[in-house]
Amino acid sequence: MTETPISNIRNFSIVAHIDHGKSTLADRIIQLTGGLEAREMKEQVLDSMDIERERGITIKAQTVRLKYKAKDGKDYVLNLIDTPGHVDFAYEVNRSLAACEGSLLVVDASQGVEAQTLANVYQALDNNHEIVPVLNKVDLPAAEPEKIKQQIEDVIGLDASDAILISAKTGQGVPDVLEAIVTKLPPPKGDANATLKALLIDSWYDSYLGVVVLFRVVDGVLKKGQRIRMMGTKAAYDVDRVGVFTPKRVEMEQIGPGEIGFLTAAIKEVADTRVGDTITDDRKPVNEPLSGFRPAIPVVFCGLFPIDANDFETLRAAMGKLRLNDASFSFEMETSAALGFGFRCGFLGLLHLEIIQERLEREFNLNLIATAPSVIYKMKLTNGEEIEIHNPVDMPEVTRIAEIKEPWIEATILTPDEYLGSVLKLCQDRRGVQKELTYVGSRAMVKYELPLNEVVFDFYDRLKSVSKGYASFDYHLTDFKEADLVKMQILVNGEPVDALAMLVHRTRAEGRGRAMVEKLKELIPPHMFQVPIQAAIGGKIIARETVRALRKDVTAKCYGGDATRKRKLLEKQKEGKKRMREFGKVEIPQEAFIAALKVDS
Amino acid sequence: MSRTATSAPNLPADPGFGVYVHWPFCLAKCPYCDFNSHVRYEKPDEARFTAAIAKELEHAAAITGPRTVNSVFFGGGTPSLMSAETVAKILQEIKRHWTPAPDMEVTLEANPTSVEAERFRGYRTAGVTRVSLGVQSLNNDALKFLGRLHTAEEALNAVDIARKNFERISFDLIYARPGQTPTAWREELSRALHEGMEHLSVYQLTIEPGTPFETLFRKGSLKILDDEQGRALWDVTQELCNAAGLPAYEISNHARPGAECRHNLVYWRYGEYVGAGPGAHGRLGTGDGRLATMTEKHPERWLARVEQDGHGLVVSDRLSRSEQADEYLLMGLRLREGIDLARYLKLAGEPLDPAQIYALQEHGLIESKGGVLRVTASGFPLLDSIVADLAA
Fold first, then answer.
1. Tens digit of pLDDT for each residue in B15-24?
2. Which CATH superfamily includes the segment(s) B17-267?
3. Which residues in B lie closer than 8 A to residue A577 (C-beta atoms)?
4. Do B227 and A552 touch (CB under 8 A)?
5. Which is nearest to A75 in space by CA: A34, A36, A39, A41?
6. Each residue of A261-271: pLDDT tens digit?
7. Which secondary-structure segment (H or E) carries A366?
């Protein structure tokens, strides 16, 4: 057990909007408490993936145990949990917050509160956190700390009068943050003599250690060699290693109540561990698990296909490897007439989708085509059967469907006043229902109920573009509602292209169909014949464009000296054709698929 | 490998054997031209270049063995800058290594200036049977734009002199120039056809990499016609040439039947040819495969190589079967007569995709019958797309 009494432990996380300085502050805190020497420091110490560093986001939760001698002369142990900040990972955030007693609310002193901050701070309050407001980047000329303090009070209802003013970049004010953690946040509670009860915060796959599980002990003690049980999955394991991160990995004999640590056991894959699960002693388990556990459910789906059919097996292996570390990502094989063999994949949200696609392309050197993102639809059939579908290809005959329900979300959007009109129009166009419109200083906060299906289709890109990047957005799923949805198909030269089929609301079908055929008309190069492009619902054509026929494509001069050059050109053309997908004798460049799915109507 | 016999009834039994001689010098470089041509302020040492060409011919003859030559072609550059004695000497060398066919064609490319026209009689005496004149346009503004040194009047005068010396003459025109309308082209081409030629080469202007025109094109100060406009001019060309009895026997070449350029037919029928002189290409049948050859392009470096090694070859690659099949396809389909599918099969080892043939036939772009595949009149202007589809 740790030598530190439980009253000298503080567990905290940092709530912040992207770019507001969460990772930089964490870096400073680690440096000040001597967790790492200067030569070991690099930016965003806790974000280990390249993609996390580049995008400035955190995907996996990380933890670091720091030693701090406070002004009262006592030694404290500070456990910082770095949480993912994005809405796609809302559940993971919630579980990380559940492992702490308090949070630092970091707000950019010139930009103010953003929608994402709001969502996370509410989650922290739901977890009974004590919150210390911190205003970052006060050294910048545009900083308006007083105004932002007022905003925090107005929007969140937190007393921000003694908010700490810092610059994580220069280190200014950071010692005050450490002191506030000790004086303002409560110590954890817990009974060392009770039966083991610990929260599974997160887990990941490490090529040396196998699956590493991050946990917070609530009661009891977790010891090396102990046989533990996961209450959700009902699996039992012998603990091989127990320890903490400082952020270097340090092995220990046991971890006591209120503490955060890691364990390894003979756990095969990350999918065997579930974020939010309760870890207990296998021989004398607790009766009740911790509340708040729910399995990860994918909400957004799309098909991922290798551009080169020969990469299919590589893709399968790559997905298997990523899933080792990310149980919330699911995939199963799918065959498309258009795209050949690929996988139908499920994600927590659009960012999750993008991250997985990017990691597959970057880390495994794959070129992929992604089909239109889809949500889950619940259908009641005329024979009483109830099914869930997430692939337009699987949609039953219209006559067999009694009722379709689609998922809805509640979205919170914060935007500068001048873009409010455009933001409202966007939400309205996406079948949104306004719930609330309030002002926070010069910024408007709107809450909308929106069908998720309208959001997965480039909503975020559009929001950024209509607000010049200033609007921020967050959402959570609410419920399923009945919807008048139709399956829209795109026909190229009379042949349906399955990869472009989608389920859309009847009132939106024509606009979406028109936008898609217009985009495809631009992207499909002229062929030797005219190519009709149509959008259709059932047998009815709702939009049509024609790609004109190519009129001339011939080399004027070709003599004995040109044969070699022309042959090499022909070889290149053949290679190029491999990257095209052919439908009804029409070659569609892969960019056309991607761009067609991104168009807005 | 050599002398491929063909089974298709309407195609010649032998694609032929030709010798190409490259003379790389020009008085000025035309802004559209990407050929291997060089301007020298001092007159090049013609005797040394002639001796080097003779050496290369000897080297090639050792590879090909004894053959019957159907055609010799002096191209450039500007071969009409050569003296008649040089031409005579080279022809003599060719006849020493190979057997001339009784009707051997000897073509020389010439600029239509008065200076060069004075040499025509000498060329004829040397053995030249056919001249191809680089007229390019009958419009003086266009000639200036194209960087030509002659006027339309001078060119027509040279045509007259050529006609007095040679039974067979041809000239080149470049059309689809920036801003050229179908009406203007109709007028210009009509005047050209009025000359009563037996052969005419008409090329649509294309922007070639590394040329001054390319630089202008990239800067946006030279606009070329799009495919619709180019097609309209193409249609005028076909209409007028057909009416004048000079149908296209190849994409850009029109002739009275029987007056086709036999030398170029060797290329398009994918026959064999020796290339001598700087930057010349060859396709040589050998005991173990077909060689693609190319010589050093730079004239003086080529000269040094030949004088040292006896040849200027910098490329001598054995072509794989599929490479030969691709070349046969892309050269052969340029001809109205088409390609022999049995010969293609023999080269490629597998037939062309029947589904592709069917689809292109459905659109009326090609026709396949009696073992011959040919591109139709409506397919010709789309040939590059057709070849890409067939080869894929």
1. 999 999 999 9
2. Aldolase class I (3.20.20.70)
3. 388, 392
4. yes
5. A34
6. 999 998 887 87
7. none
